[in-house]
Amino acid sequence: MADIVTPEKRSAMMSGIKGKDTRPEMTIRRGLHALGFRYRLDNRKIPGRPDLVLPKYNAVIFIHGCFWHQHECHLFKWPSTRQEFWFDKISENKERDKKTVERLLGEGWRVMIVWECTIRGKTRLDQPDLLNNISKWLQSKTAFREISA
Q1: To the nearest 10°, the Cα dihedral for 4, 122, 132, 136?
Q2: Which domain covers residue 91, as residue numbers?
Q3: Residue 123 domain flag
């Protein structure tokens, strides 16, 4: 199936996609802050540059977009154009994510991945439930947790 917009328009649309301060990130940041959790943002010294770093809990949180990190949910769909490019790009993202999590766990960090579909889309979780899940994990000793809708 051909793209329904011109290549120039698609390029403009793709360049408008933000890499930080996304709506899912801001939702979680505001909610955790309201619950009393304090965190640091984009610490370049920590592998993978997690979205949130909570030093007090020795924990990092990644908020993954379902498309960019190939989550098997209703929000992920392979593009119909430039398939080889997108397959390589997304596969590299997944492999990098896996290595990053392994490295962080090896360095003693606790790692949580929150998928975009838990915040938006038809299978999203209620925000209080999502924040409660994150809060419980932060206060536990569990090394790895993934929250998916």
Answers
A1: -80
A2: 18-147
A3: yes
Establish how many alpha carbons lie within 13 A of residue 31's alpha carbon, considering only the half-sphere containing its beta carbon. 17
Tell me if 4 is assigned to some domain.
no
Token pair 């939702």 is found at 27
Pair of tokens at residue 60:
């990092």
Print pLDDT tens along the chain (149 aa): 566 778 777 667 666 665 677 888 999 999 999 999 999 997 888 999 999 999 999 999 999 999 999 999 998 999 888 899 999 999 999 999 999 999 999 999 999 999 999 998 888 999 999 999 999 999 999 999 999 98
Is residue 5, in this structure, part of any structural domain at all? no
Instruction: Quickly list DSSP for 21-66.
Output: S-HHHHHHHHHHHHTT---EE--TTSTT--SEEEGGGTEEEEEE-T
Are the beta carbons of 29 and 78 closer than 8 angstroms?
A: no
What CATH number is attached to the domain comprising 98? 3.40.960.10
Pairing of β 144-147 and β 110-115? parallel
CA dist 33 and 49 (Å) reads 20
